[in-house]
Design a protein that fits this description.
The complex is a heterodimer of chains A (about 70) and B (about 170).
Chain A (H helix, E strand, L loop, with lengths): L1 H19 L23 H14 L17
Chain B lengths: L1 H16 L19 E2 L14 E7 L4 H17 L4 E7 L4 H10 L6 E3 L4 H6 L6 E5 L5 E6 L6 H13 L1
Parallel strand pairs in B: 2-3, 3-4
Antiparallel strand pairs in B: 1-4, 2-5, 5-6
Classes of the chains: A mainly alpha (about 70), B alpha/beta (about 170).
């Protein structure tokens, strides 16, 4: 009996726990998400400059929209 | 057999996902927001503005476009206030003190109410920040404006003029 109910209960539990993660964040509740420290990239300007230097030095275009062919002048 | 076994849990999950709020729409009467408290700690009473054209503006200090819209809205309010136009701003910061500090540095002439727990934007089903609800003289929502860009100024101004002319 327990063996029959257990898988169902387990599935139900997974469903309930999983559904918590699907809860949308309302537009007015994004105050904490808007904080600077919550950004995926806290220093976008610095990252852009570093990425530019990296792609120039490595003579590659990188994964971003950078121009230039390796001379480091663009 | 598998479908039969999965039927109940799947039904349960569908029931969970089907709970959604019904958005306010244009033409509907503006709801009341007693949970928002005015600067003096009184409940916000939107019926007090009946007979006026009202723009209800939901804003927060963490929202860049909200901050950007405030000088324009304040100017528009002062320009058309004598014609029967008023702005009621509802702040939704979780920490009301941050909003009060912001208002000290960037004061506005229109009334501001505070709703840190967010019941009021829930009633209005605010979909973006900032959100502006244009209420006509009879208390009906006539336009819902989401977000703010400098290019929106002409549209907002025109909408207010049209409502005031009615």
């Amino acid at each position: 009996m327990v063996c029959r109910i257990l898988p169902k209960l387990l599935l139900l539990l997974i469903g309930v726990v999983g559904s918590q993660g699907c809860s949308p964040v309302a537009a007015w509740e994004r105050g904490n998400l808007a904080k600077k420290e919550m950004a995926l990239d806290p220093n976008p300007n610095l990252s852009h400059i570093r990425d530019h230097i990296f792609t120039s030095r490595e003579a590659s275009q990188g994964g971003r929209a950078n121009s230039g062919g390796g001379c480091g002048c663009n | 057999m598998l479908i039969k076994w999965l039927f109940k849990p799947l039904t349960f999950l569908l029931m969970l996902s089907s709970s959604q709020a019904y958005a306010l729409h244009e033409g509907q009467a503006a709801p009341q927001c007693p949970s928002a408290l005015t600067d003096k700690g009184q409940q916000l009473d939107l019926t007090a503005y009946q007979g006026k054209v009202v723009l209800i503006d939901f804003w927060a200090t963490w929202c860049g476009p909200c901050q950007k819209s405030m000088p324009f809205l304040n100017g528009l309010r002062n320009e058309r206030h004598k014609d029967g136009f008023e702005i009621v701003a509802i702040n939704v910061d979780e920490n009301t003190e941050e909003a009060r500090d912001f208002l000290k540095a960037h004061p506005v002439d229109y009334p501001v109410a505070f709703n840190p727990k967010g019941e009021c934007p829930g009633i209005f089903n605010v979909e973006a920040m900032p959100s502006s609800f244009f209420i006509d003289k009879t208390g009906k929502i006539r336009k819902i404006h989401l977000g703010y860009r400098d290019g929106d100024q002409t549209e907002i101004r025109g909408q207010i003029s049209a409502l005031l002319a009615e």
